[in-house]
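Annual report, structural modelling task.

Input specification for the adenosine-5'-triphosphate complex:
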Amino acid sequence: MSAHSLPESTHLWHGLEVEKALEMLDSDANSGLTSQEVEQRRQKYGLNELEENGGRSPWQILLDQFTNIMLLMLIAVALISGFLDLLALTGGTLKPGEVPFKDTIAIMAIVILNGILGYVQESRAEKALAALKKLSSPSVRVLRDGKLGDVAAKELVPGDVMLLEAGVQIAADGRLIEQSNLQVRESALTGEAEAVNKQAILTLPEDAPLGDRLNSVFQGTEVLQGRAKVLVTDTGMRTELGKIAAMLQSVDGEPTPLQQRMTQLGNVLVSGSLILVAIVVGGGLIHDLTKGIGWKNLQELVEVSLSMAVAVVPEGLPAVITVTLALGTQRMVKHHALIRKLPAVETLGSVTTICSDKTGTLTQNKMVVQSVYTNNSTFRVTGEGYTPIGDFQLNGEKASLDECPEISALLVSCAVCNDAVLQQQQGVWAILGDPTEGALVTLAGKAGIEQDQWSSKLPRVAEFPFSSERKRMSVICQLEAVATGDTSLTAIDPAIAGFVESEQYLMFTKGSPELTLERCTKIHLGNHSIPISDEHRSQILVANDQMAGKGLRVLGFAYKPLAEVPPDGSEDTSEVDLVWLGLVGMLDAPRPEVRAAVQECRHAGIRPIMITGDHQLTAQAIAIDLGIAQEGDRVLTGKELQLLSDQELETQVDLVSIYARVSPEHKLRIVQALQRRGRFVAMTGDGVNDAPALKQADIGIAMGITGTDVSKEASDMILLDDNFATIVAATKEGRVVYTNIRRFIKYILGSNIGEVLTIAAAPLLGLGGVPLSPLQILWMNLVTDGLPALALAVEPPEPDVMQRPPFSPRESIFARGLGSYMIRIGIVFAVITIILMEWAYHHSHAAGYQGHEDTWKTMVFTSLCLAQMGHAIAIRSNNRLTIEMNPFSNPFVLGSVIVTTILQLMLIYVPPLQSFFGTHALSLQELAICIGFSALMFVWIEGEKIFFRFMGKKSV
Ligand code: ATP
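The model returned the following structure:
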């Protein structure tokens, strides 16, 4: 059957035998499709993608913009203001030249603009997150043109042969061709949390419900255990998941802690301003009534309160926050840290403890075997990387392996008990698969033992796959070739000679040396296996400790002849009575940049902790080398941890920096214990069983290269380069983002408080009229506050950002002086402006004065705006004086100050703008007075810095 006559609609694949399904899809279980067929099918079926329709609908996002209490207050102000204008219009009391409903229109325009802006930003953020998710979308191992390779999940086509292993999220629907111990979690599809055991050989009734289709796998489900070869039957929207696309996981749109705090802040501001309005209006009325003035000033009081209500709302703030977070994620991607959940950007800055895996994160995960130990001899192995060229040396001399039957048997085991493939890519030797296993194939290759050759001589018939809990794996191979007397098997022939006649199979096991040795009852010496003595055991363990003490990763090897293939799931009872072969020690050098990153952590008050499945001595040697621990520091092993109660563990977690031979479930206990001690924990993980610990951690970090899809799905952040130093860089970015957010909150809200107090003061001082119209206030909040605030959002890190302890993520938004700063600066702002207002008012009304009598209002408006410019420049640093800083290190602040000042001057001097904003041209002298008064703001803040420096206080 050719590709174009492939079945159109989903067949009931589970009702077919494997061969039939392969035939129908015109595919081959051993070589897969050809590239040409893949191309044809892609044309026909399209990409393997789902049309996402999760998340909030656009209408929902838009509606959400108007449910904010501050916007509701603005709408109320617009309506009341419109009502007043209507009264004035019908009553004929409108001032000459005044445009009716101007404020109402402006406020409503701002409300709508804010809504649209919020909508655009939120849907952008959702799209960006969706794109980030796609970036982290998994690749799939497929067999094409007879070769194994990794392709993006979207490239799969029906007929492809894909390989699955533990931790993979299945990328398409398929019919099993073969499997080993395959367990799949199908909860995404069936809601059933229990793992399902799958079997290729079954043929099922056509009406079998989804949950019972045990010979098929489905897109979106997860492999928990085992391995499988699968024929892809359906892709894209034709998969079972595609059919119920509405069930797709929606993009996480949860508000960040900061957004939640901003909502709270909004509530405080609104209620605070309502109280203030009540005081001003109530106080004013009582004053008027007791003085016998009556209700004459009521309208003015209402106008004052409307202006105050507008003044208190920081209209520009939500936009600045979203932009800052979005820019933060972009900068982090540049540092190879992919944020999956927005809250992670700001919470990263609060991390106090980083729990990191060793292999690949602290080390390079480029394994090279250095030593082989067997029959009491330690061989040194030369050679570099994965190139299978090198020598075996014994006591400094090149050794002849023919004279050493034990090592040959061990090397065959290295080649056969292995899932990695060694390939030459553009002349360079590289591995496909786990580097630990790659190093073993390379090792065997150095002795001329080629994986391909041996795999066909000893075909694999079953296996017990590796898992981090078991810390070992076994493969069961058929011995028919040996039985027929294939002489090329001399290397292991003697080793198995005694079993050949009666036994058909050979099981090779490799794993953590201690655990493997525990399961051995014999040892392979010379050409025989003899019972293993206690002396043998202690010699092996001493050799293991010596290798591990040098920081080598050590694996133990054993074998066992078998009469029949053990059933799936019988690993515990089958992997016993093994025959010990030897040890292999490989070097995994630390990443060069990690030492400096660990130092940086220490200065920043962040404690790095190593949590590894490796041997305690290996872990210790590397941790000491990297500066994570010191000589003599306690190492806690998984076994010891198991014996500790949760309370006991809690007393240990602050003391221990190395956890060795741990299993994924221990990671969860360690995170929980640290959290109970009040630590804010970032935790790395890559395996399928790391997911609970990643979810529990305050920041769950998955590995981009070696991480399983399941761990990525559970994480907040993905390390694209698997590098510890990237976590530290992201933490630094997190701190910068949070510091900048606090900076512009101080900047914006300080000015809002100043505005409110100034407006409230006007009637109390008995000045006729409201100094600032709602329109002018909106201008200040959006433009004169908004533009510099955006520039402050990209302020580069202060030099000491990683020299101070982390801040608690649970601290109030007003903590560390933010609240007192806002109030203090708000008052200073108001005092300066009120003095100016008082002077300008009397100056404008002075007899004989030529200017407009309302000029004082323009002067108040101008000086408030200009004062904010000085504020923006001074607030760039909390402690450094402006003259100590490079003005061009953040050119945006300088630029925004210049642009905003020009805009402000245009508002005063350009006639159409004058009439719209209700301003009057100021004389040069008046402008100079405004500049003089507003400069006081800058002087005050710089003075504060000098004062705090003098007092030895550092503000952060
Ligand atoms: P980390 O958690 O720091 O990444 P790790 O990679 O050493 O540590 P695991 O991969 O869980 O952790 O490995 C734990 C132990 O299992 C190793 O120390 C080794 O003894 C054994 N091991 C690792 N890989 C294999 C493998 N492919 N086959 C058999 N045993 C293995």
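Residues 724-764 form the longest helix (41 residues).
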